[in-house]
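Hi team, as promised in this morning's meeting, here are the two structures we talked about. I've kept the exact order from the run log so nobody has to guess. The first one is mostly here for context; it's the second one we should focus on when we meet again. Sequence first, then the predicted C-alpha cells.
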Amino acid sequence: MTQLTHFNQAGEAYMVNVGEKNSTTRLAIADGMIIMQPETLKLIMAGDHKKGDVLGIARIAGIMAAKKTSELIPLCHPLMLTHINVDLTPLPEKNAVLCQATVTTTGQTGVEMEALTAVQIALLTVYDMCKAVDRGMILDKIGLKKKSGGKSGTWER
C-alpha cells in the first residue's frame, strides 16, 4: 500500500467505501502497558484500592470502548463485533500492567482500531482509578500485535 486510504483524489478526508469488499472473518490483537510505582501495583494486586477492583473495571471499560470506536474515531465504520476479550496482567518485574485486547468480527473491514481503542481505554481507566496515589504512571508500547482476515491477509508484529 503506497497511499493513505482516507483521502480522495482532491485530498479531502472521506470514509472509505467497503461495500464491494467480501465479508471475511477479521481478528485484531493489540497490546500495551501502564508503568507505575511498585506500591501502586501492590495496591492493585492486593485489591486494596479504595475504588474497588481496578483491573475488573478496566476490563469492562476496554470492552465498552471497542464497541464505541466508530463514535470516537471520525472515519471508522460502525461494526457488529462478534467477540471482545480484554486481559489485564500485572507484571511485578516491570512495575506495570499489561493489557491485551482481542477483537473479532465477520465483515467487510478490519477491527484493528477497535482492539487499539480497547487497550488504550482500559489502560486509561487504570490511570484514572490510581491517579490519586500515582500521577506519574506512563502508558507505553501500545500497538497492533496481529491482524488477520480481508484482502491483505495476516500481519504480525
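And here is the second protein, the one for discussion:
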Amino acid sequence: MKFLSAFRAWLVDDVGWKIFSLILAVAIWLTVHRILMESALPIANTGGSTLTYGNLPVLVVAAASDVHLYRVAPETVKVTVSGSPEIISVLQANQIRATVDLTGIDSARDLKRSVDVAVPSGVTVVSVEPAKVGVIVPPAK
C-alpha cells in the first residue's frame, strides 16, 4: 500500500511542470528531427542538366584580308553546358561553336587568347577547358 501511495504522489505532484516538460521535450525532438531530415535531402540543381562535350574544334576568326595561316594549340577544347533536361537531351555537338578572335593581330610571341563559346538559347556555358589557347602566328608571305 505504501508503494501505491508513493507512486500516486509521484505521478500527481507538480503535474503542471511535468506536462510542460513533456511538451518541451516533444518540441525539441520534432525540431531536431526536421533539421536532420532536411539535411538528408539532395541539393536541387537549379541549373538543370549538365553535359560535357570533349574534343570540340576551336575555330579561328580573322580578318578577310589577313593572309596569315593561324593555328591554335590545343586545337580542341572541352565544353560543359547546362540547361533544362528537354533542351540538353536534343543538344548536339555541332550546335556549340568554340572560336578564337584574332582580328587585329599582326605578329606576336607566346600569344594566348580566350576561347569564346556560342551555344543555342536556353543553354548556359558552365566551363571551357582550357579557357585560353596558344596562338601560333607564322610569318606573312
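Starting points for discussion:
The beta strands are 49-61, 71-73, 76-83, 97-101, 111-114, 116-118, 123-129, 132-136.
The helical segments are 2-12, 15-40, 85-90.
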